[in-house]
Amino acid sequence: MTIDWQKEVEARKDDLLKDLGDLIRINSIRDVEHGTKEEPLGPGPAAALRKVLEFGDRDGFVTKNIENVAGHIEYGDGEEMFGLLGHVDVVPVDDNWDTDPFEPVIKDGKLYARGSADDKGPSIAAYYAMRIIKDLELPISKKIRFIFGTDEESEWVGIHRYMEVEEMPKVGFSPDAQFPIINGEKGILSYEVTFAPKTNAEAGDFDLVSFKSGLRTNMVPGDATAVLKVNDEAKVANMKAAFDAFIEKSEVKGEFAENNGEITITVIGKGAHAQEPKFGVNSATFLAAFLADYNLDGNGANYIQTIAEYMHLDYNGKKLNAYTKHDVMGETTSSANLFDYSADGDKKVTLNVRHPEGIDKDTILANMEEVLKAADVSIAIIGDVKTPHYVPATDPLVKTLLDVYEEHTGLEGHEESIGGGTYGRILERGVAYGAMFPGEENVMHQPNEFMPIDSLFKATAIYADVIYRLVK
After folding, report:
1. What keywords appear on the UniProt entry (predicted)?
2. CB of 213 within 8 A of CB of 94?
3. CA-CA distance, 398 to 360, in Å (whole number)?
4. What CA–CA distances, in Å, run from 149 to 95, 114, 156, 281, 379?
5. Together in a domain, 200 and 327
6. 407 near 393, Cβ under 8 Å?
7. How far apart are CA 197 and CA 377, in angstroms?
8. Same-domain status, 176 and 192
9. 245: exposed, middle or buried (C-beta count within 10 Å: 0-12, 13-18, 19+)?
10. CATH number, position 257
11. Residues labelled as active-site residues
12. Assign residue 314 a region: left if phi > 0, alpha if psi is -120 to 50, beta otherwise?
């Protein structure tokens, strides 16, 4: 039997876009501050999970909600299980959006909204692929289980809880990256660098009052702000002129304001996913690079000089001796993404490091401690730690996924590794598969995130075809 998968998608495209719009309108940023016993990761992620499970109930699937932190939609009753893994949470938003990030807008063939590309759009595409197989009553020999998490963008609490209480498939994919396939994922972890305060720090021409930047450990910061106390008024005019010149020749924009003996400097760069920091413009390290030329108080100078010397324009961790390279998995990436300095409080920087096989978290930690010894810092590994994951190109799963991709696109498939972390790495033979196509702009984690509508439908057809081949 020959199935026109694209035709089946076309017949459901209006329903698909409506469901996606309903899901996008839920602000599902992880919000533990407003979490409750019933909704521990916040009301938004829980509501988004319930919404996607509602789609499954409506369409006649078996669904299960695990404590409002994870759940699944299931079809079939075979002994073997094939897994799909997506997430309904999204990363935070800033003020640099041109539209409401939680109200989908279609313009020039693109659907703009937070989560359109990461990961609500691709997850709904994979869900509709599953629905097409059910609607057509195609014979299948395996159970299909679509598992949804609610904090993939942070600590994976939801999916880890799910794994504690539910059976997990051994094989499957996550529609949370790009085509043709991601069969290798680097190790991912964050290092928090804490600066010891100098009790008798000398004053400078300017005292650093505060330095703030960043939203999440996995996002290159798009804006940064420093507040300086002025101790030498005669130096202000020269600093203002130098800042204007700095902005003129740099990739950043900025503002400089003086009021009541304090200077506030804001730098606007470009946010990006921490897996590819070179595609962002790190506002905080640019601001530090500017301030490093000035005579600051002892604590402020130590903080700023360390950032400028060891973290600015260093996308591979070479300055911190965190670098390694792997033939298949590529190079280490490093990005300083959270900055929290207060003259009378914390003085911290959090770096996100993504490494291939060949180096481990403890070696990186020891190397960083040695490099930054003179800065008098302590360094700790924080949050979830993910080790490198690789499924060989010879695996039948990888071969089938690439075959279907080639048939639908006419493009040659090939294996690829990324610095991003997807739920695919949870499975013994798990990979990431779509939904971004080669040549498309990667706008995940950025303002004005979008998903091309045609690509969304094409991905749905590919998913339907490949899932059916793997479970029939």
Report:
1. Dipeptidase, Hydrolase, Metalloprotease, Protease, Zinc
2. no
3. 26
4. 27, 17, 8, 30, 30
5. yes
6. no
7. 9
8. no
9. exposed
10. 3.30.70.360
11. 89, 152
12. beta
Q: Which residues contact 411 (CB under 8 A, 6 or more apart)?
A: 180, 405, 438
**Domain-ending residue, one of 333, 352, 386:** 386
The residues with which 185 forms a beta bridge, in sequence order, are 389, 418
pLDDT for 199: 81
- Please give the residue range of the domain that contains residue 336: 188-386
First to last CA, the chain: 12
Asked whether 307 and 349 are in contact (CB, 8 A), the reply is: yes
pLDDT, residue 324, reads 96
- Structure pTM? 0.83
Indicate the number of domains in the chain: 2
Structure-token match 């339907």, residue found: 464
How confident is the chain (472 residues) per 10-residue block, as mean pLDDT?
Answer: 95 99 99 96 99 99 99 96 99 95 98 99 99 98 99 95 98 98 96 93 93 95 98 96 97 96 98 94 99 97 99 98 94 98 97 96 98 97 94 97 98 93 96 98 94 99 99 97
In angstroms, the CA 212 to CA 216 distance is: 12
